[in-house]
Amino acid sequence: MNIIKNITLVEDVTLISLHDSPADPKLLTQIFQMIYDHGVDVDMISQTPTQNNITDLSFTVNDDCLGKILDVSAQLKEAHPEVKMSVRSGNCKLSVFGDEMRGCPGVALRVFKAINDADADINLITTSEVDISVLVASLDVDNIIKNIREEFSK
Description:
Helices cover 32% and strands 36% of the residues. It has helices at 25-37, 66-79, 107-117, 141-152, and strands spanning 6-22, 45-47, 54-62, 84-97, 124-128, 131-137. The chain has a six-stranded antiparallel sheet with strand order 2-3-1-4-6-5. The N and C termini lie close together (8 Å).
């Protein structure tokens, strides 16, 4: 497991997805200003490529902030009725980290293979050169971690 130095887990994570959102930095600023005004810390953020000036945006927050996010949702719906929001709780953020990942082909493949072998779904992915974070259902975490350890011990 030399490539992977550390596996971390954040439990009680809620996935928020905004569908059919205008691809507008002004709207993004407004949304994240509302979230900030409610004192909510956002973690993972992912946006789909823009098509016809429409995009989907997903981000995660701690489950404890769900009530505040629902308040934001009501404000957003009033100002932008075209934006549809979905909420999915009961997730964990699983991150694999390693400086050796930088420039090493196939690390993501092996992480995704380990998740697939656990028969689990990935709800969200964010990455950097030395980190792959996935949002997965809490029920699947133990099997996924076991499979990642096995995969990187080969």
